[in-house]
Amino acid sequence: MIFYDIYSDVPDEVLGQFVASQQLGRLVTSTLDGQPHIGLYPFVFLGPTIEMHLHRDDEQLADLRVNPKCAFEVGEMLGTIPSHWIHPTNAVYATAYYRTVIFECEVTISDDLSVLAAQQQRLMEHYQPGGGFQALNAEDPMYRNPLNTIVALRLTVRVRKVKWKLAQNRDRETRAKVIGHLREREAGADRAAADALQWTLDYESAKQGSSTTC
Hints:
The protein folds into two domains: 5-165, Pnp Oxidase, Chain A (Roll); 170-214. Strand 3 and strand 4 form a beta hairpin. The protein is of the alpha+beta class. 38% of the residues lie in helices and 31% in strands.
């Protein structure tokens, strides 16, 4: 994947909100001989670190024990558009819109039950903020055996790569036209795609206004 500057110009605060709002993320690991593995997992995003857990028999845990370098990705597919929305005859203009953030990380592994209980508590508070569960405690018989089946992962972010492919390579008039088509079609994630493209227009306007007042 190529990370052009026009697609990676997203404020840190907006990126943080996007990552934290995703329900699951993809962990990519590799064996020492280069065989990659990928899995989809719940997680807690803490900015410089990402927390998650794996079953002790997971093949990706075996990877991480010998190669602690990994990647973690969250993304959102917003849909495809036909070429004729932009050009009447040129098929090159057919495209897809999406948002993805990729973190290149180094992992720390812990099987300490107190660490696991604290991490699982944070995970539950993130996914179930309304409560309805007994607080996790490593000494609680209800939780002790389940905690013994998993390990805690802390992914320290070394590199962050961003690609929000939202027609930023098109002029404002073309983007406005595509937004209109998306709102008219309203298939799948078209409404979300239209909102995302509108965000690029609003963000550019805000930046231009800020530079004008300075």
